[in-house]
């Protein structure tokens, strides 16, 4: 148990992330679809490098290059320390009022508690609903005010969801 766990926080020190990156990339060695530099950049403590990597990974994924989406997914796995985590699968159709009520409040609660990555699939389902409500930018701006780490988690999850949605739409054509 790390020192931050004692205080009920799951903030990760950069050393912890570096150890996880090293271990995970070693386990993935030889997989031709892994862009190790992109994964490292997605997890960089330098915000500019991180943002540029997220844009690059998204562009790759949206253009059909699986390395972009895989890099985002691996970054989420490493950061969440959940190597078998599931991701939200997009679905066609609209959400009911009951499904979308209070999703923004739930995202804020998770962000404040630094738990956006605790259950990536569940958080992504909330983020997807903000897309359908056209409130994702508003929610993202509020998450930004909570903290840079929480914003990064939100962006990773949201971008991965967008990439999956694009694949879903392409596969239905």
Quick structural gist:
This protein has 173 residues and is mainly α.
Describe how the helices and strands are arranged.
Layout: H1 3-6, H2 14-27, H3 36-42, H4 47-62, H5 66-80, H6 97-100, H7 103-112, H8 120-133, H9 136-146, H10 148-171
Helix pairs in contact: 2-5, 3-4, 3-5, 4-5, 4-10, 5-10, 7-8, 7-9, 8-10, 9-10
SSE string, helices as H and strands as E = HHHHHHHHHH
Structural Rg: 16 Å
What is the strand tally?
0
Mean of pLDDT: 83
Give the percentage of residues in beta strands.
under 5%
Separate helix tally: 10
User: What number of domains?
Assistant: 1
- The helix content is 55-70%
Principal-axes shape call: globular
Structural class: mainly alpha
Which ranges are low-confidence, i.e. pLDDT below 50, for 5 or more consecutive residues?
A: 1-11
Q: Describe the sheet with the most strands.
A: none
End-to-end CA span = 48 Å
């Amino acid at each position: 148990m790390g020192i931050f766990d004692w205080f009920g926080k799951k903030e990760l020190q950069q050393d912890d992330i570096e150890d996880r990156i090293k271990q995970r990339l070693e386990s993935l060695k030889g997989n031709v679809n892994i862009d190790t530099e992109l994964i490292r950049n997605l997890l960089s403590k330098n915000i500019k490098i991180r943002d540029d990597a997220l844009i690059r990974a998204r562009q790759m994924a949206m253009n059909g290059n699986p390395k972009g989406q895989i890099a985002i997914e691996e970054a989420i796995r490493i950061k969440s320390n959940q190597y078998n985590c599931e991701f939200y699968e997009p679905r066609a159709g609209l959400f009911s009022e009951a499904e979308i009520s209070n999703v923004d409040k739930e995202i804020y609660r998770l962000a404040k508690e630094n738990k956006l990555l605790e259950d990536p699939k569940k958080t992504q389902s909330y983020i997807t609903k903000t897309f359908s409500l056209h409130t994702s930018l508003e929610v993202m701006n509020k998450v930004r005010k909570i903290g840079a780490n929480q914003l990064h988690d939100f962006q990773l999850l949201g971008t991965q969801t967008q990439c999956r949605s694009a694949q879903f739409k392409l596969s239905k054509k």
